[in-house]
Design a protein that fits this description.
Number of helices: 5
Shape: globular
Strand content: 5-15%
CATH architecture: Orthogonal Bundle
Number of strands: 2
Strand order of the largest sheet: 1-2
Order of helices and strands: EHHHHHE
Radius of gyration: 13 Å
CATH class: Mainly Alpha
Structural class: mainly alpha
CATH topology: 434 Repressor (Amino-terminal Domain)
Helix content: 40-55%
Length: 81
């Protein structure tokens, strides 16, 4: 199972709001994303994502896709969380 870790990655960088993430994406990655799209990323695990969006998130947050998604094997204790 893949677990979406965007909020945790943001918190680790001191970014607490969607508006702050939106500004960071624009400043660091020259990527514009709507407020509803930011809200969707923060509230739900994405079912699919454009490579361009993933690249912008990684650039802005100085992370890798492995930081944003964590794989938890089926049947492990963390899966229930």
């Amino acid at each position: 199972m893949l677990v979406w870790m965007l909020r945790q990655v943001m918190a680790g960088k001191g970014i607490w709001t969607g508006a702050a993430l939106q500004r960071l994406l624009k400043e660091k990655a020259n990527y514009r994303i709507s407020a509803p799209a930011i809200s969707a990323l923060l509230k739900n695990q994405p079912r699919h994502m454009k490579a361009e969006t993933l690249d912008a998130l990684c650039t802005a947050l100085e992370c890798t896709p492995n930081d944003l998604w964590v794989y938890i094997p089926p049947g492990t204790a963390k899966e229930a969380q």
